[in-house]
Amino acid sequence: MTTSIVDRTQELAAFLRTRRERLDPRDFGLPARRQARRTPGLRREEVAELAGVSVDYVVRLEQARGLRPSADVLEGLARALRLAPDERAYLFDLARQRPRDADEPATSAAPSLARLVADLSPLPAMLLNHRYDILAWNPEMARLLVDPDTLPPAHRNAMWLCLMHPKVREFYLDRERVVREGIAHLRAAWAAHPDDRALGDLIAEFTAGNEEFARLWAERDVKVNGRGHKVLRHPEAGAVTVQFETLRPLQDPDQLLVIFRAADAESQSALDRLCAG
Fold first, then answer.
1. Nearest Cα residue to 182 out of 112, 117, 246
2. Higher pLDDT among residues 98 and 11, named by residue
3. I need a labelling partner for 51 at 20 to 30 A (CA). Which of 80, 131, 154, 189 fits?
4. Cis status of the peptide bond prior to 122, with omega within 30 of 0
């Protein structure tokens, strides 16, 4: 398989174009005569004016002509393009304007974190790295989703399960939203770890082998979603609505501790029956 490592210049260009094209000129109070446009969104000269840079600079950025924008320029572009906080962080990561940890990504859980995951029982919990590899899990999470012990190590990945596992593929009632949010989170991790070949290989595998992933990945959504809810269709417990919370250990900020809780009394009863079995 060909390894896909982040080409920051090309990705920065594509990201700026897609963010510019999604903007509605009417939101900027532009004159009506400017509404007859051949392309969606704002024009490059409008972005340049809003960001306080030259039109030529925006053109060169969008054509991936090797510029290394400063933090001040990135702030101007983020403001002009009305980027959300996660998108702004993604932009800065692509331009290498944020400090990053030089340590190798974790492939196993630190003993203290593995114990913490176990101690969270009876709440379903698991520990992921930035690739969504499942590093640790407790029995409740194994019963609710799928037992990672039954999978080869290469498939102990939350995104792989959602995209490829025959049972988990049909597990989420609002599947498109769950997959979309997962991909938006994975894209942020991809920019923050541009030299992670294993992550690049994983994304290349998903893009080539899964039409749904390829379609949503091309939209370049970026969002780090730390909490929310999911509606599950469990083959034994039936419908279960869970709230999830995602925490980052201070000493291992690239890892994610995911904890599920029942969202209502019926879901709690379903989880109790499932975990008692």
1. 246
2. 11
3. 189
4. yes
CATH of domain 111-276: 3.30.450.180
Would you list the domain boundaries of the chain?
Answer: 8-94, 111-276
Distance CA 247, CA 227 (A): 9
Residue type, 262: A
What is the rounded distance in angstroms from the CA atom of residue 9 to the CA atom of residue 123?
43
Q: In CATH terms, are 8-94 and 111-276 the same topology?
A: no
In 3-state terms, what secondary structure has residue 234?
strand
Rounded to whole angstroms, how far apart are CA atoms 217 and 214?
A: 5
Domain 8-94 classification at class level: mainly alpha
91 and 78 in contact (C-beta within 8 Å)?
yes
User: If pLDDT is split at 50, 70 and 90, which confidence band does 119 have?
Assistant: very high
User: What percent of the chain has pLDDT above 90?
Assistant: 68
Give the per-residue pLDDT at 102.
Answer: 47
Tokens coding 19:
């963010």
Q: Exposed e or buried b for every residue in 11-41, given b needs 16+ CB within 10 A?
A: bbbbbbbebbeebebeeeeeeeeeeeeeeeb
Q: Is the pTM of this model over 0.85?
A: no
- Sign, Cα dihedral of 134, 225, 182, 170: positive
Task: Please write the tens of the pLDDT for every residue from 159-181.
Answer: 999 999 988 888 898 899 999 99
